Amino acid sequence: MFTSEGIEEEKKRLERRKEELEKEYEALENKLKRGEIDKEEFEKEKYRIEREFVEVMDRLVQINYISGSSP
After folding, report:
1. d(CA 60, CA 71)
2. How far apart are CA 20 and CA 18, in angstroms?
């Protein structure tokens, strides 16, 4: 079974990763605007970031449900 400390640690870890992914996406958009990457590379990396973001958010929802707290 999960401990409340373990759940809180995992929740914090996931929230940090969510913020990191948001920053990665912003940096990726800036690279595209500056012409450092082409549209194809942008789309491939954007897809990877979006997929991981969805997974992180899904786990956060699950943890909130398990712990009985709201986001």
Report:
1. 8
2. 5
Model pTM? 0.85
Listing DSSP states for the chain in one string gives ---HHHHHHHHHHHHHHHHHHHHHHHHHHHHHHHTSS-HHHHHHHHHHHHHHHHHHHHHHHHHHHHHT---
The CA distance from 55 to 52, in Å, is 5
Q: d(Cα 17, Cα 56) in Å, to the nearest integer?
A: 8
Supply the pLDDT for residue 70.
56
Length of the chain as a residue count: 71
pLDDT in tens, 13-69: 999 999 999 999 999 999 999 999 999 999 999 999 999 999 999 999 999 998 876
